[in-house]
Amino acid sequence: VSQSRYTFTFTTTTGTVISGPSGGTNTGTSTGSTLPITDNGPVKTFELDRQPAFPGGMKSFYDYVSTNFEKQEIEEETIKVMVSFVIEKNGAMSNITVLKNTNPAIDREAIRVLKSLKTKWSPGFKDNQAVRTQFTLPITIVM
Known about the structure:
single chain; 7-stranded mixed beta sheet; two-stranded antiparallel ribbon; alpha+beta; disordered N terminus
């Protein structure tokens, strides 16, 4: 696995994290909601009382993606991949997809890196219940 020399920018509904050679930052907050919980589908992050948490924080998650993203031969200087995944009640990631196709090689690599992550998250909570949580991340890759 070759180390990436890309700069990654991740934006979520709870803030922005930039990860790359210069380090990263994490800012933002979330707000609660009184929408009912259903077991049929994942809950959006803004509906939660407690956000899912990655061991070591979101910067650790983004550092993992940045470190494990294999360099691709692409001509574009900047490319954005919109990925979506669900954090299950047990903390596992599932339903990893690219929502907006860009470069097929970059799309495949983004999915590969997220599927390779075996570390479980602490799940999101709504009304003191662990719930499935939907995440959408636009990942910007800058050469």
